[in-house]
Design a protein that fits this description.
The protein is mainly alpha-helical. The protein has one domain. The chain is built from seven helices and no strands.
């Protein structure tokens, strides 16, 4: 098959967009894979830090009620300092999640938001710590607004949990009813 110069030019005119489109598809797929890898890696790191904080509660069980059971900030030392140090660790972890939310998949981010809001609502120590005159001034407005939004919705309260349980409960099938 012997092609003329005009035929080669016409073939090149048609082939260039096809080859370019295939190249763009390959790049898009590569970027999608890189994004998924970043989300997975970030998720593992978030859970790793969360696990480290849980280890602190295991090693210091006397601190846990100040986060999960609505106990007010202790007055007596050294427990007060210990609780406030753990509060700071937890708040820094929450800030890190908020600042890196773009690197988390949406579902993982939503789970952490609910956890953070519930913890904030059950911990007077955390609410005091995050009050702007105390230490709240140094945290992002996005974190503080997110926590306050959860406070208005009473995330983590018994009523909120009961409502979600009813909402999430699958309907009974006709065979069971």
């Amino acid at each position: 098959m012997n092609l003329t110069l005009e035929q080669w030019i016409m073939l090149g005119t048609w082939a260039t967009p096809v080859v370019s489109a295939m190249g763009f598809l390959l790049i898009r797929n590569q970027l999608r894979g890189d994004r998924e890898s970043l989300e997975t890696q970030t998720s593992w790191e978030v859970y790793n830090v969360g696990s480290t904080i849980l280890q602190i509660f295991i090693a210091n069980p006397e601190c846990r009620p100040y986060f999960y059971d609505h106990l007010p900030t202790p007055v007596a030392e050294p427990l007060r300092s210990k609780v406030l140090a753990v509060v700071e660790l937890v708040c820094d972890h929450m800030e890190n999640i908020i600042l890196n939310r773009h690197a988390l998949d949406g579902e993982t981010y939503k789970v952490w938001v609910l956890y953070m809001q519930g913890l904030y609502n059950r911990s007077p120590s955390m609410r005091e710590f995050l009050d702007p005159p105390c230490e709240g001034y140094r945290y992002s407005s996005h974190l503080l607004e997110l926590l306050h939004e959860g406070s208005h919705r009473a995330v983590g309260s018994a009523d909120w949990i009961a409502q979600r349980h009813v909402t999430l409960k699958p309907p009974l099938s006709p065979d069971i009813a």
